[in-house]
Specification:
The structure holds two protein chains of two kinds. By secondary structure, chain A is mostly beta strands. Helices cover about 0% and strands about 55% of the residues of chain A. Chain A has no helices and eleven strands. By secondary structure, chain B is mainly β. Classes of the chains: A mainly beta, B mainly beta.
């Protein structure tokens, strides 16, 4: 019940296309859902996060869509750029703990 | 402001040797985390501290692993004795409990046990 399931494992997108990464969870106590971006040789860095009181959050080309009833959330990257090529992790936690549970990661490659 | 600082960045050691990884969290942060990243298992939380006290060590693989946080600005993760299956990237991360769960990662310590 503590798991966060992420798909796909890898994704190849043409420059200018839309990248979509999906995550699902079981624990209904989760109330914080961040996405982290990791470049090779670096630690993960927070990209965007959402709480379940909203169904969507947008920051620039990055959007999180959240479906509370389905217990799913997704990251959409609009107008994908080669510089977006990285590994993306979804995560979840509850507000009474700092403990983030990460998905297994999606390696995104954006080709020119 | 400096981020989370980890050392060493890279370590190659022989099986059976003791390995000590070090971490300096962001100044003012009161939570510290040790994660392990491998291709097979992804990012696993090993242990986390709040106000220097271990809160959850359920992810620590076995007794060969131990972690300490003697003060707010320093933590260690020790593996003794090390085994080849411990080869991974070990990340330290920190957060300020009141900031909405955002955690900040260091650049990792790349451990290879041969």
């Amino acid at each position: 019940q503590q798991q966060v399931k992420q798909s796909p494992q890898s994704l190849i997108v043409q420059k200018g296309g839309i990248s979509i990464i999906n995550c699902a969870y079981e624990n209904t106590a989760f109330d914080y859902f961040p996405w982290y971006q990791q470049f090779p040789g670096k630690g993960p860095a927070l990209l965007i996060a959402i709480r379940p009181d909203v169904s969507e959050k947008k920051e620039g080309r990055f959007t999180i869509s959240f479906n509370k009833s389905a217990k799913q959330f997704s990251l959409h990257i609009m107008d994908s750029q080669p510089g977006d090529s990285a590994t993306y992790f979804c995560a979840a936690s509850t507000s009474n703990t700092d403990k983030l549970i990460f998905g297994t990661g999606t390696r995104l490659q954006v080709f020119p | 402001d400096a981020g989370v600082i980890q050392s060493p960045r890279h370590e190659v050691t022989e099986m059976g040797q003791e390995v000590t990884l070090r971490c300096k969290p962001i100044s003012g942060h009161n939570s510290l985390f040790w994660y392990r990243q491998t291709m097979m298992r992804g990012l696993e939380l090993l242990i986390y501290f709040n106000n220097n006290v271990p809160i959850d060590d359920s992810g620590m693989p076995e007794d060969r692993f131990s972690a300490k946080m003697p003060n707010a600005s320093f933590s260690t993760l020790k593996i003794q004795p090390s085994e080849p299956r411990d080869s991974a990237v070990y990340f330290c991360a920190s957060s300020l409990r009141s900031s909405g769960n955002t955690i900040y990662f260091g650049e990792g310590s790349w451990l290879t046990v041969v």
